[in-house]
Each structure stands twice: as C-alpha cells, then as structure tokens.
Amino acid sequence: MTYKEVYEMGKASLKQAGVEEAALDARILLEFVCGTNRNDLLAHGEEPVSHEKNETYVNCIARRAEHIPLQHITGSQEFMGLSFQVNDKVLIPRQDTELLVEEVMLHLHDGMSILDICTGSGCILLSLLHYSNDCRGIGMDISKEALLVAQQNCKNLKLEAEFLESDLFSAFEPDKAGGKQEKFDIIVSNPPYIETEIVETLAAEVKDHEPGIALDGGKDGLDFYRKIAKEAGNYLNRGGMLFFEIGYNQGEAVTKLLEKSGFRDVQLKKDYAGLDRVVFGTFLEEKHV
Questions:
Q1: Which distant-in-sequence residues (6+ apart) come within 8 Å of 113 by Cβ?
Q2: Side-chain half-sphere of 7: how many Cα atoms within 13 Å?
Q3: pTM above 0.70?
Q4: In the chain, where are the structural domains located?
Q5: How many CB atoms lie within 10 A of CB 143?
Q6: CA–CA separation, 197 and 211 (whole Å)
Q7: CATH code given to domain 76-283
Q8: Integer Cα distance of 116 and 163 in angstroms
Q9: What CA–CA distance (Å, rounded) separates 263 from 283?
Q10: How far apart (Å, rounded) are the C-alpha atoms in residues 215 and 199?
Q11: Which of 240, 265, 272 is nearest to 104 (CA)?
C-alpha cells in the first residue's frame, strides 16, 4: 500500500470510531510510525509503505480508535517548544497551560527559586528552568509514578531539578522526619480543579486514560486552591508570588481565596478564548511555619 492509501485507511477507521480529529490524528500517527513529516503526504504520497510499518500503523490506529489518547500512543507531547514524555500516570500537557508558564516568566528573574506543586510530568517547572538562568526548582507530587515521569523529562532536557513525593506541602512540614525548611520566590501550581460530578462527563480520552487524582478538585473544584493558598505564605519569601492555573469559571472565587490568604495585587488573566485561566498574587505578609 502507498503512503496515501495507508493514511486514508487510518483516517476512515478513526472517523468510524468517532474520533474528533480523525484526519489530524491519522496523519500524526503515520508520521510517528514512518519517521516522516507533514509534507510527505503531499510530496511522496505514492511511495510504498513497508508491511512492517503498515502493521505497526494499523495497531496504533486501533488503539486510537479505542480513544486512547494520541500522546499515550506516541509517548510524547510538545509543550513550550519542548518535547515531554507522557503516559497514563500524568496529565497530558495542554496548550492552555502555556499561558500559565508565560505569565510566570514575566515575573521570573535569573537566580530565583521555584516550587511547582502537583508537578505531574514536570512540564511547568522544567519549561521555566529551561527558559531562565541559574534558577533553582523543586517539583512535588503525591504520585510516585508521576515523579518518575518528571525525573525522566528532567534528564531528557538536561536540566537540574529536585522532585519530591509530597501531599501538597507535607514534605516541608517541620515535624515530618527529614522535612525541609524551604522558602521560594515563586510557587506555581496547576492543581486538580474539575468538580467531582463533572469528571465522569469528560471525554473518554480524559476520564478513562488520565489520572483521576490529577482531575478531581472536589465538590466545587476549589479544594486544592483553598489548601495551597492558605499555606503558601509559609513557604514564600516576602514579595514572593503564587501562580495558579484555574478552570474557565473560577477566576472570581480563586481571586478571593488569594486575597483572604494575604496576597496583594491579585490579578486574573484570561486565555485567548476569553475564559478565566490564570490567577496570581504577591505575598507581603510575614508567616512562619
């Protein structure tokens, strides 16, 4: 079969399975299997595809037809111009989250210290470290499996960062054996923020294949914001900043949480679709762990 014929077969299979981006996903999977690029379909569509590669492609299409995320099949996702390894133990990095990273970068200076809570794949922290100089970073997550992914991404990107297993700030609690006494210039988090009853209504690719603990933010979706905002001042230098990614309708609620917790100059940023996306503020009060 030719390159074009194999592609058309894959596209038809995905359309029949109800995959929303059937044409795009079929092309990306063919490029993944054949090591080609997006121009090859037009320029070399009549070239033959080996039996071995055809079989591999058919298998990939079958998996995508079962609504297994494309990124779990290819094993990677681009974020902030970097390639991150992903699997079903971490949230797939999304373009929306790039707005959070870009906002932090506007306030990040060389030599600063960064704490990333609910780090997952490490895409936020590692992007910030990649695009800055001499910054120090710690990523924390409750999931050991997620931390293994983050550590591998750190190695792949040739960066230095520390990753800790921690239930939010628990690794820093003074009464915890070996607990670290740390303060940071920046705390950033993309925590679980989907309302519990909404999780089951999400697309199959999300609810069936991405980790539930990284999605469920409690009854109103705000559980993690409450906990992090309340404690973050204990771990920020004076003038340090806290940045959150938020859900599309959570701007007002999270803004109030930060203000109530001692943050000043709290700002809400919307994404390119005009939806609430990032809330951040500056901590000026003194707190002690």
A1: 135, 136, 137, 138, 182, 183, 184, 185, 186
A2: 23
A3: yes
A4: 3-66, 76-283
A5: 18
A6: 16
A7: 3.40.50.150
A8: 9
A9: 5
A10: 7
A11: 240
